[in-house]
């Protein structure tokens, strides 16, 4: 290989190799890291600022006007105007240079599947090739037939495929035959097969196109959330993420929550508006992804969607009515593949849609995707997965069994149900630090505050109780704090005053907000405790705790434990994996094996019905305390609290 | 089982079991034997006459007026007015009670696959269930879901299917999900699955319909001949043939032979007219079958078509152009299944079309069907199959290898290229007997002669040479015979004079006709001889000789050998299997295993190119003699001839 340069991106600590002369903007895109580049890399928007931490790049004079003296001295450059020289470089991407969408989203710390070449190294314990996208493209350069080599056109294609993929049984759609004779002869016997890997042993040619189009093979992984829909564009050739977009689910106009949408769909409104709304939302995201990556819609040959059971049904145009009524039966849990065009998604005319399998009416494809993403089903260790959203979904198990339950957490963690709550998007307070009278807040995007997102609320609550501004029952006790005030008799903490906020309205957290948040976190913890106890287990038996959710880039694990949202387990056992629904969908996109594993997970997982469990309500009530009524469950939190109180007593 | 009565139908010697009270007409239909029943069994047309040979039936007085005294004494009854009593019966069906179509057709002596129940008896050596139609219906009575048994609708269907078919992996088309929730709940959880058996281990549900429709599951096997198209309606539940129809291929208007149709399709005419013509022909036959059986089009869930490579391409709307030009490449040989509706065939909207696999441009699905039908690929014995039509196709081999070749035989055997030639339909002379001045002819349908069909020509030629009316080179030598006359200097033999024929025109066989027939039979025998010799084999090495062709019900094996169309092998080794293309298609219709076997046959068979073989022309010339220039090749014919001459010398 020619002179390869290592480029390390911070804070992700992601390393990619590149060649001299490539721009940092391009190298970042290659690494799946998105840098704001409004002008498309022309050096005229100044949005793509990076800081060079070590090494050296060639920085063209073109962008210099966007940086001041001090910034230049600190090592800031514009990514699009900086080309690699011949030395390794380490750069840091400041928050303001992130694309806005990236911030709200949906980072997932899921292991990436390497492209085939990168797999060859280590000894794979998996019996089937791991990297084998559900749909991919194979270029075929066929030998021209002769009197001696007179296989039919289709058999010639099968033979070429079998040479590339021995041990695979090849089939073709009937439609492949139409005009095949001309296609081959008009294109010098060079065609690209769109291949659907039904499983590792049987692949299906869905269509054929002229020449070599294997460079244009993209897939879209979609997290079909009730509130937010996130779509990731994946280059199926390199297995790299090349774009991500998110937006509100347009279904919201027919009801905020799943239940009201089901009522709409099964009432006069009908199914169509809901189906169309989610399809339109996804198509809009796809449009942005296509424009952002500079590709064509027809380059997208594969979609994988992960959503809860109702969202999956609505996307597919299946009536969700029986999901809602006893005995709560979905039309399907493991979903047959569909043609994306048939469902209404815009991509290649022969693109396919696979849905992540659901377990039951209550446990959807988002959860099987989550299990797949964290890999708990592959490990003998006892793991738990908590996916925190409107529903707190919890899975406990290992490679032999999986049990899951679902607790209604309310909308607080997704920015609903609180006075200034908002989604984890630009302007949302995501980090809060209170030290005495001093307050520091950090917003997504770094600008003025517009509201508070889920992780901000958790941070804030943890700080308020640590500082003794609220007590362990969530009541305000330091009404004298300069940031505390009362409005209509309800105390509230002011994170940003009218003058400090983006909107001119104050950004606050009220005692009622804290009450709602308390219920949300109590529901999650109680659910987990009851589920574990029903299995004869305790928090301390867990070897691993995976936390997932659309909290933006970060969830502060320490603070989540301090408020009692997460159990008090050794911190090294806890791993925040971000949007695991999206991560699992992407895994399936890139690996038929993973998709089949998800189907096995769905069959294997048993559902534990929390609502009928007699102990749940008691546990819920006991958890309505910060961190918990039973202090012995949170020994490390108790310890820290005592230390703090000791410290304060000393200071006084 | 209740009191079962055996009914034997002659001349087929087919035995069926039935119960007291059933009419002979119904029982015959059950046996796949078609009896003319113009009035539909009302007893008012008198067409359904049968003769009771032994046993006794209850004959209602209703039909008595159609029979005269003598007939009643001889045991004639009307089938529709005769009900079984409690004794076994043997009946004979006179030719005039056959449906007209049945006479021209296409009898095939192929072993019938029994319905599942009849399989259970003997120890099957086949590792997979033999009776397992490519498409069939399965009725499912699902348990209503409860809180405890809360599988999704689709999983509930999978579970019920798995209970009926363990060891099968079940999948469903995405389209099955649409309205599935309503379908199940509106129909008391009773539905019928239309199942596509991809192979013995993987079945696909193509669609679901309300209630139990398993009674209405029919398939159509089609022999897509260049000249004649034959379609058979098969009850997939009982595996019985319940109807057969045939007609000219409407493509004939675009050219009589395959080559001229290819030229039309690839020239200005285009593919569409040819595709539409064959589809229309089949649909017309299907209409008759549907009307005849009193079923609905939507009861037809499966089509299997067998045709030569060009006919297969035209049916599927694939350009045949590359088949015709060097290096003679078809678009496909093994054909992916298609939706019948997509191809234009009328049946159930989800009916499928499977085509019998082709080997090459020259060896089509009709031949793989033939091999499948006679089963030569399953036997260690050395077998040959000769399919006599416009092309004489010959396959030689056993369970380890198969080699085939194709010789252009010309249209004589199909009724073309001779002065009074006609298809094997009503009025065709099919049997000829000449003894001195005496002439006996037998026509199909028993009426006056209209022309001569292939088997009639063979019969006639054999009689003429045996009687010494023509010599062994095919020249007329007995110009003094009362039935011989000369027209424009060409001698001809008169089978029916103007006054004896149906048309008022004489039915004759001319010296030129005999010359054409000679070329046809010479091509077939020479091809077979060259093929065998290229394999180091001789006629005497054959353990079995299967003869197939659309000759109507009978081909006289003895006479075929006497003229040298078939080699002079021990008669017990020769089996006439009729329309083996149709028979093989029906086997596939009834057995996924058989269809897969056909695909294996197509892959396994090698093609021997006769036209480039230097010895072929010499062999062809040597075979232009009755039976052959090399008399030692036909010892039994020589022997018979000598005996005959001795006898005659004695008589003189
Ligand atoms: S992308 Fe516009 S300045 Fe770099
Ligand atoms: S069918 Fe008409 S009389 Fe028997």
Quick recap:
Chain A is of the alpha/beta class and 652 residues long. Chain A has 19 helices and 29 strands. In chain A, 29% of the residues lie in helices and 25% in strands.
Description of the structure:
By secondary structure, the first copy, chain A, is an alpha/beta fold. Chain A has 5 domains: 95 residues, Roll (Ubiquitin-like (UB roll)), CATH 3.10.20; 83 residues, Ubiquitin-like (UB roll) (Roll), CATH 3.10.20; 136 residues, Domain of unknown function (DUF4445) (Nucleotidyltransferase, domain 5); 153 residues, ATPase, nucleotide binding domain (Nucleotidyltransferase, domain 5); 95 residues, no CATH class. Helices cover 29% and strands 25% of the residues of chain A. Chain A is built from 19 helices and 29 strands. A 6-stranded mixed beta sheet of chain A has the order 14-13-12-15-17-16, with helices on both faces. A 6-stranded mixed beta sheet of chain A has the order 28-27-18-19-20-29. Chain A has a 5-stranded mixed beta sheet with strand order 2-1-7-3-5. In chain A, helix 14 crosses helix 18. The longest helix of chain A has 24 residues. The radius of gyration of chain A is 26 Å and the shape is globular. About 5% of the residues of chain A have low confidence. One FE2/S2 (inorganic) cluster binds next to loops of chain B. Chains A, B: InterPro entries: 2Fe-2S_ferredoxin-like_sf, 2Fe-2S_ferredoxin-type, ATPase_NBD, Beta-grasp_dom_sf, Corrinoid_activation_enz, Raco-like_middle, Raco-like_middle_sf, RACo_C. Chains A, B: GO terms for molecular function: iron-sulfur cluster binding.
